[in-house]
Amino acid sequence: MRRRLRLRDTLMLASRSLWIGLAGFALVQLLGWLTPIPNLLAWSLLPPAAWLLVMLAQALRPLPAVRVAQRVDAELGLRERLSTALELGHADEAHPLAEQQQADARGYADTLRPRMLPLALARRPLLLALVPLALGIALAVLPNPQEQALRER
Known about the structure:
With 153 residues, the chain is an all-alpha fold.
């Protein structure tokens, strides 16, 4: 479940923030049309590369067991069974209901499958990310008037 939650968080963040890397790409390309920039394509690919590194870091970021239990409880309507059992298991003093709570949570945990937590994307931000992508590609493909200035240098 931990991997599924991490994948789901990363996909949601990626779909909501893709426009940032693509806007950086388009902005550098536009700047390259206004002023001569050597290696314009390489410079314009830096913002999407930085965005990709952030997404990779997000995908590799560990989720604490307590947070996983709380989220699974909330999303699947388990009424805090998993998180309570986890807290009672880490308690310094023995609680009289700890074994029963953990047995109950174990019974529910055995029935859980990753597909019970569906993957989701933010579609509207993804569609809006097409605008800077199209602008950046158009600026990269069309003849740049600053290329002449770069050749003269």
